Amino acid sequence: MTGTVTLVGAGPGDKGLLTTAGAQAIARADAVVYDRLVGEDILDLIPPHAEKISVGKENSHHPVPQPEINDILVRLAREGKAVVRLKGGDCFLFGRGGEECEHLLANGVPFRVIPGVTSALAAPAFAGIPVTHRDFTSSVHIITAHARAGKPLQINFDALVRLDGTLVFLMGLTALEQVTSGLLRAGMPPDLPAAVIENGARGTQRKVVCGLSDLAGAVRAAGLQSPALIVVGRVCALSDQLDWFTPLPLHGKTIVVTRPKARAGTLAGKMRRRGANIIEAPCIETVPRKDTQPLADALQRSHDWAVFTSPAGVPAAVDALRRLGCDLRTLYGMKLAAIGKGTADALASYGLTADLVPAQYDGEHLADALIAVMPQGGSALLLRAKQGGQLLPEKLAAAGIRVTDVPLYDTVYRCDKADALRGLLAAGKIDAVTFTSVSTVEAFVQAVGAAEYTGFTACCIGTQTADAARKHGMCVKIAKNATIDELVACMEEIDNVP
Ligand code: SAH
Asked: What is the pLDDT of residues 391-411, one digit of tens each?
């Protein structure tokens, strides 16, 4: 049976501005055909089994010609696939969405359209420019300033000036001079407020706001690049006053999050809400170990404490117990220790309250805290990664505690974004990298390879993590207490990195 093609508007780039319906369509997709302007974070939502086809369009240069894109959509649908055609911004605004629908219709392929947040409205909103305002104007007009190669712009500037509304030009950066001079010639006042917004509604957004006649020069001086759009109208005068985006504490900072995908969400979300440009580049993966025998053997004996040293250990224990045909009740009678708040929260999500969380969240302090409450000859069951550090078991054993160390999962170094990270590092575009464990540091270093690690600040949870980062010559900042909130706060203290 023929599949359906769903045209999805991905919004201006930030994952948060993708619609819920759009995200659901991506989650269900068997194949995704996407443009260049679709944000990386949104591409990360594509299910691993789905086919990913880039047909990136760049200015007048179309790597995959439109007829070919049309044919790809029909072919994939005829293979019975749920196809998502993912486009930047809204799919019907200068995105050739209409042409694609016509082609699908002509070929009997069913389609749907999920509109997206257009950059034409989102970029001004993130730049403090309300596109309409009762005191200034009651209309907004969206115009393409894209000319076919070698042809002059086909824009009726006289008509635009007479409209007296806010004008938004897309695809206009290369033609900026022609747009402003066209408007001036048609009688627009030279001091009419105007703006160019680069990377609108993204963490990397930049803007230039000035009088119309100065715009082209100011934009050239600032070196703004594509994607960018032009806004012309008196509402641009509000841009400074209503700018809510630039003052956010992490605005303008590009921050890499290295923790595993499943756990990156909260940290990345918190920093995004503070205005940061986040690059989610998980460098480690936790893989459950198939062999449950060590756990089965360990459970033959009784233990006083079950010790969890990372949030990932908790679901791994639940899973391993299930595979042994039992469940968390097997731990009945044991006290529960968690290395930090995240791990205690993971226990809480299963209805369990940690009996002990050390004041400082690392292996050393966990060992001290356990030794303080356990009698000599007591026993501790460590439920953790195969690659866990030796400090904790050694300290416990030295204090006369019987330790059973059960490996439940492997911490595997794996980074799909290694090339991108290397490029950004070389270009000096990374302000900070967050490390939440020693293994994230080692995995990052392995992914990036030999490099100078001095251009950014390594923001670390825990002294052992910080030591590992220092060992590689990184400039380190430690979260005051090892929580995600403290890590975010520590990032806000980074000033200009050398
Ligand atoms: N369908 C898209 C527009 C496609 S045309 C939408 O609704 O947004 C591509 C043009 O959109 C670019 O040349 C640029 O002018 C503009 N654009 C897209 N994303 C942008 C962004 N994040 N910031 C500024 N302009 C953007």
From this structure: 999 999 999 999 999 999 999
In ligand 1, the atom with minimum distance to the C-alpha of 117 is 7
Cα distances (angstroms) measured from residue 436 to each of 191, 217, 219, 358:
51, 45, 40, 17
Higher pLDDT, 479 or 414: 414
**What is the CA(184)–ligand 1 centre distance, in A?**
24
Task: Report angle CA 270, 268, 392 to the nearest 5 degrees.
Answer: 100
Is the minimum distance from the CB of 136 to ligand 1 under 6 angstroms?
no
Catalytic residue among 15, 57, 253, 477: 57
User: H helices then E strands: how many in the chain?
Assistant: 18, 20
Q: Whose CA is nearest to atom 12 of ligand 1?
A: 171
Cis peptide upstream of residue 115 (ω within 30 degrees of 0):
no
Indicate the average pLDDT of the chain: 92
Decide: 230 in ligand 1 pocket, CB within 6 A.
no
Assess whether 431 carries a catalytic annotation.
no
**Residue found under tokens 């205690």:** 344
Neighbours of 60 (CB within 10 A): 12
| 57 tagged catalytic | yes
| Beta carbons within 10 angstroms of residue 40's beta carbon | 14
- Please, which pLDDT band fits residue 264 given cuts at 50, 70 and 90? low
Nearest residue (CA) to ligand 1, atom 11: 170
Q: 370 to each of 8, 229, 380, 408, how far by Cα in Å?
A: 53, 59, 9, 21
Q: How far apart are CA 300 and CA 295, in angstroms?
A: 9
Q: How far is the CA of 70 from the centre of ligand 1 (A)?
A: 21
* Cα 119 to averaged position of ligand 1 atoms, centre (Å): 5
Span from the CA of 227 to the centroid of ligand 1 (angstroms): 6
60: pLDDT strictly greater than 50: no
Q: Whose CA is nearest to atom 23 of ligand 1?
A: 200
Domains and CATH numbers, the chain: 5-116 (3.40.1010.10), 121-242 (3.30.950.10), 254-283+414-496 (3.40.50.10090), 286-413 (3.40.50.10090)
pLDDT value of residue 497:
42
Query: Read out DSSP for 25-61?
Result: HHHH-SEEEE-TTS-HHHHTTS-TTSEEEE---BTTB
Q: Which residues have CB under 8 Å from 329's CB, separation 6+? A: none
Buried b / exposed e over 348-385, threshold 16 CB at 10 Å, is eeeebebebbbebbbbbbbbebbbeebeeebbbbbbbb
Q: b/e map of 141-155 (b: 16 or more CB within 10 Å)? A: bbbebbbeeeeebeb
In this prediction, residue 498 has a pLDDT band, given cuts at 50, 70 and 90, of very low
